[in-house]
Amino acid sequence: MSNERLATHGTSRGGSVNEIWTIVHRERDALIRDLEALNPQEWTTPSLCPGWDVHSVLAHLVNDAKSTRLGFVGRMIAAGFNFDRINALGIARERSTDPAQTLATFQEVCSRTTSAPAPLATRLVEIIVHGEDIRRPLGIEHQYPVAEVATGTAPSSVDSGG
Questions:
Q1: What is the pLDDT of residues 32-76, one digit of tens each?
Q2: Model-level pTM?
Q3: Which of 123, 110, 130, 96 lies closest to 14 in space, CA to CA?
Q4: Fewest CB atoms within 10 Å of the CB: 59, 72, 110, 139?
């Protein structure tokens, strides 16, 4: 079944595919709004991800949004099955010299429904966790849709990934 068909007709443990993607897209949009106001120095703020600044985490989210199952597998093989290496290569590929351009690229891909070969709920975890990796060091508070997030991240929904 194609991603498009799954995105409109399928279900995923912990919530329908549509429900999860709707939340992911809403959270990506909210992060974009929060980042539009950053000054140049704030982009270099260390994130909660060791070794990554705010700009690098955003580049990682761009890479994540662009990922497809087949593309991820190919990049994983090329990276020698090393998650740190695949992340570093993805950041290098997607991080523009100008943070505003990286943000513009994130805006362009924020409504995508493609994913690495992992449970769909991991896409929700990815945007929430990395959203906090960016927001907390910058002192930006964000309210998450608790009931929807709890459904999408129930232990049976997120049984693999990282």
A1: 999 999 999 999 999 999 999 999 999 999 999 999 999 999 999
A2: 0.83
A3: 123
A4: 139
Given a cut of 80, is residue 133 above it in pLDDT?
yes
How far apart are the C-alpha atoms of 61 and 144, rounded to whole Å? 18
Residue with tokens 């974009």: 32
Q: Is 119 helix (H, G, I), strand (E, B) or coil?
A: coil
CB 17 within 8 Å of CB 6: yes
Q: Count the alpha carbons within 13 Å of 26 in the hemisphere toward its beta carbon.
A: 13
Which structure tokens are listed for 1?
């079944």
Burial 6-26 (b: 16+ CB within 10 A, else e): bbeeeebebbbbbbbbebbbe
**Sequence-distant (≥ 6) Cβ neighbours of residue 20 within 8 angstroms:** 12, 14, 120, 121, 123, 124, 152
**Count of residues in the chain:** 162
Give the whole-number percent of the chain exceeding pLDDT 90: 69
